[in-house]
Fold each of these.
Amino acid sequence: MNFKEEEKITRFFVFAALGWAIIGMLVGLVAAAQLYAPELNFANEYLNFGKIRPIHTNVVIFGMVCNFLMGLSLYILCKSSSANLAYKGLTWVLFWGWQLVLLIGVVTLSMGYTSTKEYAEMEWPLDIAIVILWLIFALVFFTTLGQRKSKHIFVSNWFSGAVIIVIALIFVMNNLAMPLYAFKSYSIFSGVSDSLVQWWWGHNAVGFLLTAVFVGTNYYFIPKVVDRPIYSYRLSLITFWGLIGFYTWAGTHHLVYTSVPSWIQNVGVVMSLLLWLPSWAGAFNAWMTATSNKEAWKTNPIVWFFMSSIIYYALATFEGPLMAIRWFNQIAHSTSWVIGHVHSGALGWVGMTVIATLYYMIPKLLNKQLFSYRLVKVHFVLAHLGVLFYIVSLWIGGIGQGSMWLALTDYGSLAYTFSQVLDFIKPYMLGRTIGGGLYVLGMLVMVYNLYMTSRPQIELTEQKA
């Protein structure tokens, strides 16, 4: 079949994901630097941490991840189903509309227009636009799925379909609001109810946009890169149904020790612990697939990135349930340890998967060979040094921070002042900034490598790793 138009659409989504990734990570690096040296905001209202932090998270989630999801889920669907894309014109509307919404979102967030909800800061006109575009995405995806030539639905398409349905449901519910005027509204929920709905969305945005998307794409791309089948198709379905069954209930582990009813907190704790099973089943399955071709994993640095992403996925899905346990939650929650946990998943799991996929897909979409595998190895080193500096600094600093906040004198008063805790974590904020800088430097190496790959009539002297 001819997939020329599908590959063109995918190419636009993939390059958009790369562009937003660089922007989001650079903004995140500025935010990290300000936590070490607050004066780096230069007393400029547009560089204020309170504004650039939501820009960082929204650009990474809605810019990098959603473009990655849309482009590659449609590509995988067409290739695995032997079907051309339905409504190609609407797909272009989806692409350009999504980029426009993101651009307006960045501008309005920098101007201070925010709903103040985690991972959902964009105001109501943009929420409505996102929902309309998401429905277009759903229409294109499920119509194409219905036109498939193969009787079997490949497992990656199960994950993509689930992401579309779940994200639509929880995004709409969390963003129900009463508009006051343009770019200002108030949630229809309040108090504890608002917290419950927010973390139903917030944690499942992580669970589906930052987890299920990449589990699904890995089941397609890792076998392609190593030229071997999925180790166990049955394990992939266990992972799918486990994530669907457990993840949607786990968000209330963010609300342990709050006024939320204890039984709801306990549901979140139990479901978080149960998530170890499908998460590690998926990690084991992907690892066995990636290592099934010894020649590939020994010599191909793209496979190394996939293998690293699997390790960080296993690590992040160990840390999450650990934080749900009450005794550990008491120490770690609301500390830098949580940020370390988030970024072991975001930089380690999501980032490494995106990097590996881009190195594989962009040369393929351009019908060229990768410019330099040596630069991929340089990127590999920079990325891993960056992640380790980042998360180890925040693990150590976070546990120390939590312990100091809990410490009491013999008279029952707090042993440390707030400023003393800030002094303690300052060197760890520097470690975080260094780690972020190394990671961003690696991304810039990748941009150069892919740019050189895209150039016409270049000398390709390093085609083998």
Amino acid sequence: MKAKLFVTDMDGTLLNSQNEITDAVKKSVRRAVENGVIFTIATGRMYASALPYIQELGIDVPVITYNGALIKYASGKEVFASYLDDGLVKKLVDYANARGLHIQLYSDDRLYYAEENASSKLYRCTAAVQGHPVGKNLYKYMKNVPKLLIIGKNPAEADMAVREIEAQFAGEIVAVKSTPIYVELIKPGINKATAIARLAGHYNIPQEAILAIGDSNNDITMLEAANYGVAMGNANDDVKKIAGYQVADCDHDGVKEAIDRFCF
């Protein structure tokens, strides 16, 4: 069966190393959509950061953001939303502050952190969003938070945070890396796989016709859940081990290759 629901990660997958969608990928996406394929994005990014790329592709579909915690059409209609408990958000911020880790949270699709630093600047530039350094007032922005993000100074610090959070907050939060230094903090049961299942039900598409493609650990659940689990050529080893298929890297139009192979 050909893929009828095509779900792609953004960074390192749909976007090349310059944070762009190439013309070849755009053309292939439009061809797929014209032939009835539901093409959408599943990303750890905030909705405001993903929206311009969906608009660039010219499609109005539910976009999976915050690793599945918010699913929303490009036109603004909300399909699903799940938020962390305020008290848990506070405990996670306390944990990060006690260890000198940079942590940022997202409330009502706005980005907040205590102070501007190299980590926040890196994130803002990559995600192309406005950030709000609010100092101790960070504790005032703990409602409607779909996820938090810790940015390590290096991969070792990020790995340490994953281990400690999984031990200290077992059953309350899932810590998963989306880049070597980004640690996503999300609610158990909220991930890209459960989000895809919601979309498949929304469009009445069977599992056999679902394709998911990505490159990082936060993509693993959706690659395992899809019939076609595709790893980018630049994916890490964990992703490549569980993927059933592999395509070119993000700088050589891997998404186009996947569309051409599995949608036609």
